[in-house]
Specification:
about 325 residues, mainly alpha
Amino acid sequence: MPPKKSQATKAVKKKQAKGEEEQKQQHEEVEEQEQEEHTELAEQQDQSSVEGEGEEPSTGDKRKEAPTDEEPEPKASKISSAFPKQQKIISFLLSDAALAFCQNAENASSSGKGYFSAGLAPFEHLLCAIILSKPLSHNLGQRTIATVLNEPYAWKNANDVLEAGKKSDEAYRKDSEGGTTAGEMGEMAQLVVDEGWDPEGDGSLNGLLEKVQSGEGEGDGDMQETLRKEVTKIKGVGGTAGDIFLRRVQGCKGWEGLGWFVDGKTKEALEGVGLPADGEKIKKLIEDLDSKNVRQDFVAVLERALGVSLDGKMDELKKEAEKN
């Protein structure tokens, strides 16, 4: 019997030794895991304090904030750094002082209607579009527009043009130095009457607006494209005149459905004076200035930026805007 007892004792001791070894191994594994977690946490904290441009720490993160004067500048500030400068340019373009960089002296001294006048009727914008689409210099285009919009001509609607007769034709042809014929203006006026574009005869072109809104005119249903194609029905008028008219008339009441249109040449002009070439972004900049008439100011910014570009005074304007 003694040998059996000895064997039992050895078995128990062996089992106890094995258990102690397993416990020791488990303890070592726990310590190793805790060390790894501690090291990982330390690395995360160290990385956070160095970058300073990542996501904001969560509510439960009690990492001590670095001193304000030592924190790197956030990315958001770098992205929006041009914003105040662009607002300055927008604000300056909407001021009377900006006209000195895009309006010729003759028109600047006149109190009558002109290229940059606010509140022109859609028909007057159509006149401007046809004139500006012709191969005229920027200054001559302004002078021609001032001629037809003011006395003794003062063309406010199609009937005014049709009734003007030969005398006005000759004066207009002389003023435009043959670059645009009065015959085209007469054909435009006749089309306005024939197509019913201005049924009230007040220059509002409500008939054209209704046709464009209803999709009855030529085009694929898009108001911009439909309006452009309707305007090019006028003999001698191409896509350039359509774009100019679209750019200008979108500032008139009732024509808001045209969106915030910027044509190709004006996009280049906006970029040239330091502004975004996107209509929605220009609108936002104007809204942030608490504009009382965002659409009218939107068109003014486009026309003045283009005028500055055509006169080659972009750098001068930007320098002047910085002073204000």
